[in-house]
């Protein structure tokens, strides 16, 4: 079987298994890179799949300096390729491991966040507010359905977030009116779609077969519907949510116009939320352990290292702790004053 055919087969099988679109794209992209590597290294292509994986993953670490998280994705993608597509059992893979990297999140001040949101195009300002106000990842925000915004209980219901985890986060009180207006707008879009008898929205897993009318219901409509229809992977014309790349572009244009740093992205709003949230709790005298626990509940899937950095960035400076250089400067100043 040709390598391109294997990639197409992999994509189709993952679609049938209702894998997330992002996962499908990531895995097939890894498969394409892997096949390109095998074409250039025919001697490795003749090995069993475990040895091919070992050679490829080691090559990626040595020549592309990939991160540990990237290597984990590539390992899982090639494992899926071997077991589900090639039908082979995978033995031990002794590839060189990428070294873990601890990155300190870059943070801007609350006033700069307010400046950014105020300057965003109207269609994207509310999305920016939700990202910052609830600490959501961009796909978690854009994947919200009408049914996921629970105004009666003031909650946002997150389905299949990072790590395939669900979660519940509170709606910021200042956002309720804006979100209610957005819900009314989505309702108008839904009525127009039903009037023109457009295809319903896509549904996760096998719900489309189990509940064929659910795709046409208001509750399953995207909370942030795209103004235009688009074709899904089955080439069916449907209403999709606003695209993440459109939000990314809006952030780039706005931050450049304001002269904000390049790290100000939709995902960075989650970092700003976490740090500013902790600063607020600590300033109120909430113990660090309680503040950390509360933030962990809202952020859901976050590593201990990242949580440590959030706490470190949010912790106020202790005026009693001074640099040895400052102590030396104080001593020299006191001596100078005494002589004078």
Outline the structure in words.
By secondary structure, this protein is mostly helical. Among the domains are: 3-86, Tyrosine recombinase, N-terminal domain (DNA polymerase, domain 1, Orthogonal Bundle); 110-247, hpI Integrase, Chain A (Orthogonal Bundle), CATH 1.10.443. Helix content is 57%, strand content 6%. It is built from 15 helices and five strands. The chain has helices at residues 3-16, 21-40, 42-45, 49-64, 68-86, 110-119, 122-134, 138-142, 176-195, 207-210, 244-258, 268-283, 288-299, 304-314, 324-339, and strands at residues 149-150, 155-158, 167-170, 225-231, 237-241. The strands form two sheets. A three-stranded antiparallel sheet has the order 1-2-3. A two-stranded antiparallel ribbon has the order 4-5. Strand 1 and strand 2 form a beta hairpin. The model has no long low-confidence stretch (mean pLDDT 87).
- The computed structural class is mainly alpha
Count of DSSP-assigned helices: 15
Q: Beta-sheet strand percentage?
A: 5-15%
Please tell me what the overall shape is. flat
- In spatial order, strands of the major sheet run 1-2-3
Q: Unreliable segments (pLDDT under 50, ≥5 consecutive)?
A: none
CATH architecture of the domain at 110-247: Orthogonal Bundle
Main sheet makeup: 3 strands, antiparallel
* Alpha-carbon Rg, integer: 25 Å
Query: Which whole number gives the mean pLDDT?
Result: 87
Separation of the first and last Cα atoms: 90 Å
Order of helices and strands: HHHHHHHHEEEHHEEHHHHH
Strand segment count: 5
The CATH topology of the domain at 110-247 is given as: hpI Integrase, Chain A
- For this structure, what is the CATH class of the domain at 110-247? Mainly Alpha
Helix content: 55-70%
């Amino acid at each position: 079987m040709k390598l391109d055919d294997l990639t197409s087969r992999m994509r189709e099988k993952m679609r049938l298994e209702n894998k997330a679109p992002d996962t499908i794209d990531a895995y097939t992209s890894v498969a394409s890179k892997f096949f390109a590597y095998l074409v250039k290294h025919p001697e490795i292509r003749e090995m069993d799949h475990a040895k091919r994986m070992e050679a490829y993953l080691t090559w990626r670490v040595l020549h592309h300096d990939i991160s540990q998280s990237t290597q984990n994705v590539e390992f899982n993608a090639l494992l899926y390729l071997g077991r589900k597509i090639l039908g082979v059992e995978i033995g031990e893979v002794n590839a060189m491991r990428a070294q873990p990297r601890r990155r300190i999140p870059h943070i801007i001040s609350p006033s700069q966040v307010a400046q950014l949101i105020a300057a965003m195009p109207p269609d994207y300002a509310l999305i920016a507010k939700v990202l910052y106000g609830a600490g959501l990842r961009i796909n978690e925000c854009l994947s919200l359905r009408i049914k996921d915004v629970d105004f009666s209980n003031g909650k946002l219901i997150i389905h299949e977030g990072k790590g395939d985890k669900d979660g519940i986060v509170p709606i910021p009180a200042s956002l309720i009116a804006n979100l209610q207006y957005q819900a009314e707008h989505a309702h108008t879009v839904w009525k127009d779609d039903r009037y023109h008898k457009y295809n319903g929205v896509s549904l996760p897993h096998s719900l489309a077969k189990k509940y064929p009318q659910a795709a046409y219901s208001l509750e399953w409509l995207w909370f942030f519907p795209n103004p235009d229809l688009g074709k899904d992977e089955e080439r069916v014309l449907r209403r999709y949510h606003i695209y993440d790349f459109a939000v990314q572009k809006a952030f780039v244009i706005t931050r450049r116009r304001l002269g904000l740093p390049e790290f100000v992205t939709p995902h960075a709003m989650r970092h700003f939320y976490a740090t500013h949230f902790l600063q607020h709790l600590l300033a109120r005298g909430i113990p660090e352990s309680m503040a950390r626990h509360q933030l962990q509940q809202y952020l859901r899937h976050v590593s201990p290292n990242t949580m440590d950095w959030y706490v470190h960035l949010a912790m106020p400076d202790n005026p009693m702790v001074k640099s040895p250089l400052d102590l030396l400067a104080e001593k020299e100043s006191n001596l100078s004053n005494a002589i004078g």
